[in-house]
Amino acid sequence: MTSTGIRLHAPAPGWSIDADVVVVGSGVAGLTAALRCEAAGLNTVVVTKARLDDGSTRWAQGGIAAALGEGDSPAQHLDDTLVAGAGLCDEQAVRILVTEGPDAVRRLIGTGARFDESDGGGLALTREGGHHRRRIAHAGGDATGAEISRALVEAVRARGMRTVENALVLDLLTDAEGRTAGVTLHVMGEGQHDGVGAVHAPAVVLATGGMGQVFSATTNPSVSTGDGVALALRAGAEVSDLEFVQFHPTVLFLGPEAEGQQPLVSEAVRGEGAHLVDADGVRFMTGQHELGELAPRDIVAKGIMRRMQEQGAAHMYLDARHFGAEMWEHRFPTILAACRAHGIDPVREPVPVAPAAHYASGGVRTDPHGRTTVPGLYACGEVACTGVHGANRLASNSLLEGLVYAERIAADIAAAHAGSGLHARVPQPAPRSEVPEHPLQPAEARFAIQRIMTEGAGVLRSADSLTKAADRLQRLHSEARDALTENGKTAEPGVDTWEATNLLCVARVLVAAAQLREETRGCHWREDHADRDDTAWRRHIVVRLNPDRSLAVRTTDTADFPPTRPNPPAHRPQEQ
Q: Residue 322: is it exposed, middle or buried by C-beta count within 10 angstroms (0-12/13-18/19+)?
């Protein structure tokens, strides 16, 4: 697979760094990959869009799932994951996750992460939606992500690893054979470098997180603009399952006009016994699923949306008054503080909640070692589609997936290095002309895209809503293209216009896949196709970007992914 030749309109790099590996992103996936690569003797550079501890990982409240408790097993964890994935999980990918997960968590603890302990001294484990066992390890009550981020950032700094902060990655560099040769990036006015530069490296690990900012209301931080998925598409990589966006059922409702990052009310609150109720105090999830309020997230989100529709309500409530002040303060201090900051006291009143965009189950398609369809380009964490999540991510599997697959990527790169397969590559010079080849979206397009996606491709979708969304997105795409073609003008290069352009790219792919999938499965809910259709749709939708920026869409033959490479390299590590 070679590059499509599409690059963001940007100044030529004015500086460069040489490395063996560049890791883009500083969440659990990125920093784990970087630490393992560095430990293997590889010259590793970490690039991150804000500060090292500003990624999505720090916002994770619930915890990390692994079969660590008495009576639990990887087989039981696998079963729960497959059920949540609604027939679209790649079973090999899930088996890797649940089998390697417990030891990966223990290594994370060895790196310095401190998890909450039970009175007996072992890990304190809780339950979340879709889990039949208590297998969620947590830290600081509801601050698991913040603790994992702290431990990994401290480890990176203790080892003196080279980092480039406040840097937006732009595009993949490739050599004459289409193999990875590094990335271009823009440093936003702070640190040793400034402006557009490059990191030259034969291995690039994308760990850029999600794309929740494609919707108006999300739990994702403002930096989650789909940069990694858009970069991969421009580089010729395949993406899959982008239609499966998980909307977290219980996000603090701040009003119908609220936009941007919204406070999450962790599933662990329900895991500890909170109830979902309507304005009359009726528990509407009872009888809808064997696990009730702890059903998989897609089922709970649909239950909330249905009740909202029936009653003409803008939100439902989460009632945990029976916890009492002491439990709220010790088990859920972060959520308690967020609620009180918005004038709501969960100790005394039910908390208003509604679904909001939370997690992208799809992303850049990878194999069991994190390799994409572009040689030398890897992906892990939320930006990747390993096949683990299928049509709906099981609660707290995301941190584990980032951990396990980051370790696998590092092992694969280290094996290539040991086999002399990792050597510096000369990037192809990017053609420069007075007129850019591809237009940028204006900064204000970000808000237009978010409104289009929220109205047409949110929790509830239909052929009509998706067609309208596709038409409006195409209009944004065409207007920018025509302005460039007719008068040579486009938006000025900059962080805001690059982000808006990335958001439009991933939005078009998401809507195209959602239009094609004429069924309801997992977190993809089509009102006009209310049933799951295993005969026609127990398969994945895979998308590439053509050189003219049109979309090449195909479906796989089965629920398992085809290989990312026709002939896997000889250094491929053995399956464990």
A: exposed
**Residue range of the domain that includes 277:** 249-357
List residues with catalytic annotation: 297
What single string gives the DSSP state of each residue in 18-31? E-SEEEE--SHHHH
The pLDDT of residue 180: 95
Q: SS3 for 325-343, per residue? A: HHHHHHHCHHHHHHHHHCC
Q: Whole-angstrom Cα distance, residue 184 to residue 16?
A: 9
Is the Cβ–Cβ distance between 452 and 472 less than 8 Å?
yes
Pairing mode, if any, of strands 21-24 and 203-206? parallel
Distance CA 228, CA 171 (A): 9
Least confident of 19-23, 93-97, 210-214, 485-489: 485-489
Are 55 and 24 contacting, i.e. CB atoms less than 8 angstroms apart? no
Is the four-CA dihedral 158, 161, 165, 168 of positive or negative sign? Answer: negative
Residue 347 dihedral angles phi and psi, to the nearest 5° = -70, -30
Taking the model in full, what pTM does it have?
Answer: 0.92
Say if 561 falls within a structural domain.
no
Residue 275: partners with Cβ closer than 8 Å, 6 or more residues away: 283, 293, 318, 319, 320
Do residues 353 and 379 share a domain?
no
For residues 353 and 235, membership in a common domain is answered with no
Q: Tokens 């096949």 map to which residue?
A: 387
Q: For the chain, percent helix, then strand, then coil, each to nearest 5?
A: 35, 20, 45
Domain identity same for 258 and 317: yes
Cβ atoms of 549 and 436 within 8 Å: the answer is: no
Q: What is the mean pLDDT of the chain?
A: 91
Residues 380 and 253 in one domain: no
**Selection from 255, 199, 261, 258 nearest residue 225 by Cα:** 261
> Both 504 and 452 in a single domain?
yes
Q: Give the chain's domain count.
A: 3
- Same domain for 57 and 198, yes or no, is yes
For the record, the structure tokens of 107 come out as 């290594």
38 and 163: one domain? yes
